[in-house]
Backbone:
């Protein structure tokens, strides 16, 4: 059975219903991934956007885990989720596949440091949300999409006009990470110390310049923001 480290505080909040007042639905093996990518933000004044509120228990869980300084923002299409608003926690009702709605949220609450997409899980919802929110995130930001196994379920989850699933989309972004090094004719340039290079830097996408890594797990994809410069190789 796949499960996470039993000593994880976040996992304990999930396992012990006495530490929550609302229900949470999670796969047990997700918590190690949460700890790995979100653990460094505990106790800091971070802003987290969770897409998909369900019964409100996950908002409560993240509040307990991240601490009182965190600003927690929930987004759900179900108006009943407005009932889960508390001090320091806001909930917006709308469609995560509506870019205008997402931009209104960002304009009102600010850019999130952390995003967890646990929303409707359709390809279009996941891709539109990512394309709208991710480019606005700060250098230290983390964007996590979970339940990506729905990419294999078909039916209503396969709702993109171009046939892409979110995993297809994420694999394409992996290619974007290599935009500098995939150019064989730039190999000599990258063997020159950066302060000795002539001419303009090799043009790459904004995604390439602002993404440090993409991590794939069972049913989770994580994007780590971060400014990148032209690479450098040498023999020593």
Residues:
């Amino acid at each position: 059975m796949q499960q996470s480290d039993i000593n994880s505080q976040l996992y304990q909040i999930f396992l012990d219903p006495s530490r929550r007042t609302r229900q949470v639905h999670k796969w047990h093996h997700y918590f190690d991934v949460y700890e790995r990518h979100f653990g460094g933000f505990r106790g800091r004044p971070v802003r987290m956007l969770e897409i998909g509120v369900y019964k409100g228990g996950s908002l409560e869980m993240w509040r307990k885990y991240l601490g009182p300084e965190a600003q927690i923002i929930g987004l759900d299409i179900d108006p009943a989720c407005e009932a889960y608003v508390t001090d320091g926690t806001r909930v917006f009702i709308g469609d995560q596949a509506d870019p205008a709605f997402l931009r209104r949220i960002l304009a009102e609450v600010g850019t999130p440091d952390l995003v967890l997409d646990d929303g409707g899980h359709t390809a279009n919802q996941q891709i539109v949300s990512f394309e709208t929110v991710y480019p606005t995130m700060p250098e230290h930001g983390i964007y996590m999409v979970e339940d990506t196994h729905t990419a294999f379920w078909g039916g209503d989850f396969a709702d993109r006009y171009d046939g892409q699933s979110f995993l297809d989309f994420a694999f394409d972004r992996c290619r974007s990470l290599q935009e500098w090094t995939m150019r064989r004719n730039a190999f000599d340039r990258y063997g020159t110390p950066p302060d000795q290079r002539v001419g303009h830097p090799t043009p790459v996408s904004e995604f390439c310049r602002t993404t440090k890594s993409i991590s794939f797990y069972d049913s989770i994809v994580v994007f780590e923001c971060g400014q990148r410069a032209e690479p450098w190789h040498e023999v020593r």
